[in-house]
Amino acid sequence: MEPFLIEVSSEAGRKIGGIYTVLQSKARFLRPFFGSRCLFIGFWDERCSSEVRLLPPPPELEPVFSELGALGVFCHWGVWTAGDERPIILVDAKTYANRPAEWEDGQTHRDIEVNRIKYLLWKHYGVDSLMEGSWDFSENAAWGWAVGLLLERLSRRSPYSSGPLVVQFHEWISASALLYCHLRSLPLATVFTTHATVLGRSLASAGTDVLAAASKARSPIETTAAYRLKVEGKHQIEMAAAKHADVFTTVSDSVAAEVRYILGREPDVITLNGLDLHRLEDEGRVRHLSAYMRQEMLQLAESCLAPYYPARYGRALLTFISGRYEFLNKGFDIYIRALGLLNQKLKKKGTREGRMVIAFIFTPSSVRGPRLAAVRNYLLLDKIHEVLEAAGVDGERYRGLAERTASAPSSLQADLQQMAAGFIREGERPPICLFDLNYASDEVLRALDSAGLRNARDDAVKVLFYPTYVRPDDGLMAMNYYDVISGFDVGVFPSRYEPFGYTPLEAALKFDIPVSSDSAGFGRYLQARAPASSGGVKVLSMGAGGEHASAELAEYLEHLYYLDEKQLNNCKEEAYKLMSLFDWKGLISNYLAAYEMAARKKFGKSISFAAKKEGKKSPPPASKKTAGAKKSRAPKKRK
Question: Are residues 342 and 224 in the same domain?
Fold first, then answer.
């Protein structure tokens, strides 16, 4: 009998976070082992419409959907177009959560269904959500329970009952679905994957070094910590899911250390995150896009600085940081402090032929929109460059507007001067923040000022703060984030808390040099497997504290600054090739090991993972607890 796999996640077909990338990129690599016997279950809302093609349900599921619909659980059947055209069921449990409910526990209770679910979670699993005030706990508890109702019906109906059924649940959001399956003793094997613990993230946001605390602890953390941070319901439901799953997995060595301390269970398998490297953009297109986007980023920088003073831009070192606005967790303070140290070093040592470092900070905050001066100056500079190019003014575009304008025919000088007079100046120095904020005091801006980074004329490091999502409708650059980052030299991600972290991997695949930390799953994995001599990646040591990490980062950026163009490009090439370590082609074996282990525990027999495509045999599932990746080829060059 062939196995059937169902993956449950609120991010299946719904692009809201990093788990989406895991599921979407992994989907194709499940096909050789499961064929068509693979299904996703996700959370229904309007964000699914761009990637899920809704279809009438198969005839065998119509009675199930009808029965659940009578309970207020509405199931939508479709195909996840971005997820290897896999079938997907999107569950809407809002009506179900709020319908009237009645239950007995010595006395009769009349309430709504979501509160009955909370009661059952407390009665059977000790999940205390009495004071849980967050809307997402209630919503996700009800959604998960509704998914459990669906799984109960699927597990007893063909084709899902025709062979061993393995169900993988991702994150605490799906925990109530797993607990429903456990409570009802459903005929399916369960795998629970923690990508990051709720309490671990909360502790890190409050300033705790979670990995350091975990390494020193002799026993799991007390539950009182969750009450103190007001996440007791989420923490306890996550603990219950980890405890009662047939197999428990995490996505990196760092999360493995975290869950021993936070959840009190040793992971059975480490299911490292990967990417589908063979379906990435054509390498030649990435290189071409990189050259184009570099010009765009230089133009944006020049449009901010040129109205205030002349400068050369062409050989600038371009660096960026991006991520959620978690100032300490994401290491924005480390990056900013390092830029301040680098600025001092370069001013003291002397810049190389007037070469600048241009540093961007991309993180979403609350904004009214782009600053008028930023938009006007950006568009005006673009027009000036068009006029110069139409006039046949040759040479390096970004050697500086003043120099380039001086090379124009005398007949154009008056017009060019008049155009340049249209630049808007908003003060004595160029702006740092390119958008109008909806609040008075900003942590990033305060840190930049404290580090002496003010975009003054004699500063070797210029900083631009982009406090919104980079996207085609952002009102300024109007471009896709993944296109924009291809124009940089270095992507810096000095996280204090990062279970895995796709951002440095994505940056390296755009020919940026990635900087990670040994507190991130990505950084730790790369540190253990990259050649010691590799100059294409940098993993910062966080053990000695943020100031030490800033000094280490400043030293590394200074090293890159003084490299010539060929040496810098060699580092980028090396980083790109190293990303083959994260190819799903090798890493999928870790998931197969988890599925095999769960089936053996639940059904007392092993699953046979014979590859079904073209008669090829599958790679043998990793047998060790921390199953390692097979070394695969670097991304192919395509003509």
Answer: no
Domain of 513: which CATH number? 3.40.50.2000
Burial degree of 98 (CB within 10 A; 0-12, 13-18, 19+): middle
Pairing mode of beta strands 367-370, 435-437: antiparallel
Distance of CA 94 to the CA centre of its chain: 27
Query: Which phi and psi (to 5°) does residue 101 adopt?
Result: -140, 155
Q: Does 546 map to a domain?
A: yes
For 360, the token pair is 């961007």
Give per-residue pLDDT as tens, 262-275. 999 999 999 999 98
Tell me the Ramachandran region of residue 248: left when phi exceeds 0, alpha when psi lies from -120 to 50, beta otherwise. beta
- Asked if 573 and 599 sit in the same domain, the reply is no
264: Cβ contacts below 8 Å, ≥ 6 apart: 220, 239, 242, 243
Q: How many domains does the chain have?
A: 2
Is the full-model pTM beyond 0.90? no
Structural domain harbouring 144: 4-92+126-276+594-603
In a domain, 545, yes or no: yes
Q: Would strands 317-322 and 357-362 be described as parallel, antiparallel, or unpaired? A: parallel
Residues in the chain: 639
Residue 197 lies in a domain: yes
The pLDDT tens digits of the residues spanning 321-335 come to 999 999 999 999 999
Residues 429 and 357 placed together within one structural domain of the fold: yes
CB neighbour class for 621 (10 Å; exposed up to 12, middle 13-18, buried from 19) = buried
For residue 324, which of 450, 132, 196 has the smallest C-alpha distance?
Answer: 196
Whether residue 194 contacts residue 238, with contact meaning beta carbons closer than 8 Å, is answered with yes
H or E stretch covering 124:
helix 113-125
